[in-house]
Amino acid sequence: QVQLVESGGGLVQAGGSLRLSCAASGRTFSRYHMGWFRQAPGKEREFVARISWSSGDTSYADSVKGRFTISRDNAKNTVYLQMNSLKPEDTAVYYCAARTVGSGPYDSWGQGAQVTVSS
Q1: Do 112 and 20 contact (CB within 8 A), yes or no?
Q2: What is the DSSP track for the chain?
């Protein structure tokens, strides 16, 4: 498994922007597809975005499409989530996750970063 540490969360007004970072250590970062998930209070964790090991393939939840952008820098062992036009309903704990190329589920998770969007 790979160790993941998120940073960049915080409090922002509606319409604002934040960029989350997730630093990976322990294994070869380029062996992993990466994803971002979030969990709001009282709700189940949900998928936000994912990116393939080579950055050649990305996908997004409909709720964030056009506002969020996932990217990665394999030289820095880091994946990013740029969040623009934030809405109060984006308030959640955001988690990055990793899954090995060629395998099934995400099996490494970060500790989470709180994002709070005020109206």
Answers
A1: no
A2: --EEEEE--EEEETT--EEEEEEEESS-GGGEEEEEEEE-TTS--EEEEEE-TTS--EEE-TTTTTTEEEEEETTTTEEEEEE-S--GGG-EEEEEEEEETTS-S--EE---EEEEEE-
CA–CA separation, 57 and 42 (whole Å): 31
| Tokens representing residue 108 in the block | 């490494």
Q: Read off the pLDDT of residues 22-58 as tens digits, 9 standing for 90 and up.
A: 999 977 888 899 999 999 999 999 999 999 998 889 9
Q: Is 40 exposed, middle or buried (0-12, 13-18, 19+ CB in 10 A)?
A: middle
